[in-house]
Amino acid sequence: MATKVYIVYYSMYGHVEKLAEEIKKGADSVEGVEAKLWQVPETLPEEVLGKMGAPPKSDVPIITPNELVEADGIIFGFPTRFGMMAAQFKAFMDATGGLWGSQKLAGKPAGIFYSTGSQGGGQETTPLTAITQLTHHGMIFVPVGYTFGAGMFEMEQVKGGSPYGAGTYAGDGSRLPSELELGLAFHQGKYFADVAKKLKGSA
Question: Which ranges in the chain belong to alpha helices (H)?
Fold first, then answer.
């Protein structure tokens, strides 16, 4: 039976979604793994999103909390707001209380990826503060560590991401993830899928 990896994200301007797509490619490259993209529900009205210049959402399906149970491993992605996950994603996590009560997610591996506006804008605090969500659910946090090799030590170009997971810088919104950032995202997907597959195989 295939190992199911769910990539669950919120993306307002498309930066996190771009990373999610690359993470899926990485996960799908592992034999015996099926990766699927999911968005969490939007909480802002269309009128507000329009004023914020947010593009229309893609056709990636919207997930409900109970669907998380179907996954063998889950990678969560979100932009930062003042160094922590965006409220839209926090609202989704708040809706998982029923799963927490029954500990339905306990023992499942979980990863994190993210986007920030600037270099001091939360590349480490955003994933670090998100780990509390995983802890209360009893999930197993799988950081990417330094398994990406030399790419983790790049100093000549602006590079998002950290040992916690893949990341990118949105800047004023016009900057898209670089090839190096996309490379880390692909690697995270592959690395996480390998771990999830091993955990499922040993169960």
Answer: 15-28, 46-51, 87-94, 97-102, 125-137, 179-202
